[in-house]
Design goal:
Elements: H1 7-32, H2 42-67, E1 82-87, H3 92-106, E2 111-115, H4 121-126, E3 129-135, H5 147-153, E4 164-171, H6 180-191, E5 195-196, E6 201-204, H7 208-222, E7 237-246, E8 256-263, E9 276-280, H8 285-294, H9 309-314, H10 327-333, E10 340-343, E11 353-358, H11 369-377, E12 383-389, E13 403-408, H12 412-424, E14 430-436, H13 439-442, H14 446-454, E15 460-465, H15 475-481, H16 483-491, E16 495-500, H17 505-517, H18 519-527, E17 531-535
Parallel strand pairs: 1-2, 1-3, 3-4, 4-5, 4-6, 13-14, 13-16, 14-15, 16-17
Antiparallel strand pairs: 7-8, 7-12, 8-11, 9-10, 9-12
């Protein structure tokens, strides 16, 4: 049984199976005749026929119930529904779209679930946010039912500046035109003025890593209120927290922490600049103990799987209460905490895996789930659940290629890893543009970056601090002022890497690039893989 199927899907399959079985039995009765199948009274045969009709009707209803176009009325009545559209050849994209919509509904958002052939120009024009789950079939072809959208909607001269969107592109890397329809959809939306919520997420053959990344991005869109566990749990390894320090004491912004971690056993594994650390957060020990005491459970209770009850609770959403006092029953009902993703700020040659994150605060002032775990609740020497994830979309270009790095805030983490790798490889044609609040408190890795510039590892270093007096207000302003230099570096074959905030910085930088080189050249950079982003 596929564990990803919903109960409604299973009910539909069961009803279809029963209906077909009963019809097959009736046909067999007619075919074999009375010699092999004793005759039944005429009234009984009529009842059997009627039963078959009822079950078949139930099967049809179940199929309609599973695949119907769903609108939800929960959430703020003034909030327009989020459109979740799918194009599927085998049904997997439809299943992911249903999960996506369910995730958003659990976070309190209204959704509108549609097959792509049910999406028209009017629906797109009236939507404010849209998520597309787009499969590619054959040699780069769209699913059959998407042809109506291609022939009727795409030729329409639409303008969609009000629409924010994202694309989950499904494909198979063994084919030449990988995720082609998803990218075609993304390019068409951009061309017609829609704004990406985040970059297209590619999924190779149902890759669990990519699907967890999509779910992480959904969490940013929907908020933590959804209490959604990972669709496929990462296989974490234990790492030890070796060092932690605050990088911005005295800052008017949230505290930024720098962490150094090492595996509990063995040597450091290999990773590339741009790769991601998936962290498994835990509840604080105080929160777990308060729950145990309030519900009269013993923290030391050993479960059937060998864990203690306290450990199982620490890795799960804490339930509102307990229906009974059987610890194993309780543990089986717990929803595991989802992972969180952080850009790796170091390279293996530096002897540790380094992270940089800003502590997030809830409305009541308490630390957020993952940042609270890493920044407040752990102690030096504690074990951290961690898994490395390759992030090929943000890997570095060849060392002989000029590199432009643009970021703000904690986005400097991913950019620092790129600079470290480039400098170690002797690639010094690097231009960094970085923005934060105050130079006195928020110039993260400032001394190191300035030293690299003096030693020739960074050819250009432009910093912008929005709360200080200066020529520029934000990093995008500095980029716009140096548009001539930008064009020259791009003419020299430079690759652009952008890392930092999705809201504000990333779209503003995108606009500056379009203004500087034109929409066609901007599109060509993206297609050639010379413009890559890791934004959140």
């Amino acid at each position: 049984m596929n564990p990803n199927r919903s109960p409604r899907d299973l009910l539909g399959n069961l009803a279809v199976g029963l209906g077909l079985l009963l019809i097959a039995l009736l046909l067999l009765r007619l075919h074999l005749g009375e010699r092999w199948w004793p005759a039944a009274p005429l009234a009984s045969q009529w009842w059997m026929a009627l039963a078959a009709l009822v079950v078949y009707a139930a099967a049809c209803f179940a199929l309609w119930w599973c695949t119907r176009q769903r609108d939800d009325d929960n959430g703020d009545s003034n909030e327009p529904p989020i459109l979740v559209a799918w194009s599927s050849q085998t049904g997997f994209a439809q299943q992911l779209a249903q999960r996506t919509a369910a995730h958003l509904r659990a976070a309190g958002h209204k959704t509108r679930l549609r097959a792509i052939d049910q999406v028209d120009a009017a629906l797109l024009s009236s939507s404010r946010q849209a998520l597309f789950v787009a499969a590619t079939t054959g040699e780069g072809d769209p699913p059959d039912h998407a042809l109506a959208f291609l022939s009727q909607v795409m030729p329409t001269p639409l303008q969609l500046p009000q629409l924010q969107y994202a694309v989950l592109a499904l494909g198979d890397k063994t084919y030449e035109h990988y995720c082609a329809f998803g990218h075609q959809l993304d390019e068409w939306l951009r061309t017609h003025g829609a704004q990406p919520l985040f970059d297209t997420v590619e999924v190779d053959n149902a890759d669990a890593d990519a699907l967890r990344h999509w779910q992480q991005l959904l969490g940013q869109l929907g908020g933590e209120a959804s209490h959604a566990s990972d669709w496929s749990a990462p296989a974490y390894q234990p790492w030890l927290l070796r060092q932690r320090e605050v990088l911005n004491p005295g800052s008017i912004g949230g505290k930024v922490f720098h962490l150094q971690l090492q595996p509990t056993t063995g040597t450091l594994p290999a990773w590339q600049a741009g790769d991601i650390a998936e962290i498994g957060p835990r509840q604080s020990a105080d929160a777990v103990m308060q729950w145990l005491q309030a519900n009269r459970f013993d923290a030391a209770t050993v479960l059937a799987d060998g864990r203690t009850l306290a450990d199982a609770l620490a890795r799960s959403y804490l339930p509102d209460g307990a229906d009974n006092h059987d610890a194993n029953t309780l543990a089986a009902s717990l929803k595991p905490l989802p992972h969180r993703e952080y850009s790796i700020a170091s390279m293996p040659g530096e002897g540790s895996l380094q992270l940089m994150l800003r502590r997030q605060l809830r409305p009541d002032g308490t630390p957020g789930l993952a940042s609270g775990w890493l920044c407040d609740y752990t102690q030096i020497g504690d074990s951290i659940d961690l898994r490395l994830r390759s992030n090929s979309n943000f890997h570095p270009p060849a060392n002989d290629t000029p590199l432009i790095l643009i970021g703000n805030g904690t986005g400097i983490a991913g950019l620092r890893a790129h600079l470290r790798a480039r400098i170690d490889a002797g690639a010094h044609r690097n231009w960094l543009l970085f923005g934060e609040r105050n130079a006195a408190h928020d110039f993260h890795f400032g001394a190191e970056l300035q030293r690299w510039q003096r030693e020739g590892g960074i050819e250009r270093l432009d910093t912008v601090f929005s709360r200080d007096d200066g020529q520029f207000h934000y990093v995008q302003d500095a980029l716009a002022a140096h548009s001539d230099v930008l064009r020259q570096w791009l003419d020299d074959g430079a690759t652009l890497l952008v890392c930092g905030s999705l809201q504000g910085m990333a779209p503003a930088v995108d606009k500056v690039i379009i203004d500087a080189i034109g929409a066609d050249a901007h599109q060509a950079l993206r297609i050639a893989g010379r413009y890559r982003r890791d934004v959140y």
